Amino acid sequence: MTKTLSIESIPHRPPFLFVDEIVEVDDGRIVTTKYVDPSADFFRGHYPHEPVMPGVLISECCFQAGALLIAHRMGGYDASRGVPVLTRITDAKFRRIVKPGSTLRMDVTLDDELDNAYYLTGRASVEGKPVLRVQFVCMQTPGGG
């Protein structure tokens, strides 16, 4: 039986948790949101007088949404099965900057699955305007650490 999917279904925790809400999920797609808190520590240095969310963190929002989709497909997170690990990033295209106070919406789809490799496409947007499109692969590492 499939467990209820929640943010606790991935091993990420603050300060490196970049999902606030799971909006919808099915076996091939997930939609999540992340509020870009103006007090986030990374804004102190990126950039102090013109704060912009780093593209790598926008990407991480998509990667964590993808990890949640994998957890959903596996019936929930179980540390004994390992953790989701990013193994490939391709075709990342950034369209706009993300400012403090924005709410990012991530839409991640499963394109293919081979053994324990999940091929995904992530799209991030703010107020319906595209911010990022990225293709990536996540794998479930062996458990038992």
3D structure, described in words:
The chain has 145 residues and is mostly beta strands. It has one domain (7-140): Thiol Ester Dehydrase, Chain A (Roll). Helices cover 13% and strands 40% of the residues. The protein has 1 helix and 6 strands, in the order E-E-H-E-E-E-E. It has one helix at residues 55-73, and strands at residues 21-26, 29-35, 84-94, 103-114, 117-126, 129-140. It has a 6-stranded antiparallel beta sheet with strand order 1-2-4-5-6-3, with helices on one face. Strand 1 and strand 2 (29-35) form a beta hairpin. The longest helix has 19 residues, at 55-73. It is globular, with a radius of gyration of 15 Å. The chain starts with 20 loop residues before the first strand and ends in a 5-residue tail after the last strand.
Q: SSE layout and pairings?
A:
Layout (H helix, E strand, L loop, with lengths): L20 E6 L2 E7 L19 H19 L10 E11 L8 E12 L2 E10 L2 E12 L5
Antiparallel strand pairs: 1-2, 2-4, 3-6, 4-5, 5-6
What is the 3D shape? Answer: globular
CATH H-level homologous superfamily name: Hotdog Thioesterase
Order of helices and strands: EEHEEEE
CATH-scheme architecture? Roll
Please tally the helical runs, counting DSSP H or I stretches of 4 or more residues: 1
Our Rg estimate from Cα atoms comes to: 15 Å
The averaged pLDDT comes out at: 93
Strand content: 35-45%
DSSP, total strands: 6
| Unreliably modeled segments | none
Structure, briefly:
The chain is mainly beta and 145 residues long. Helix content is 13%, strand content 40%.
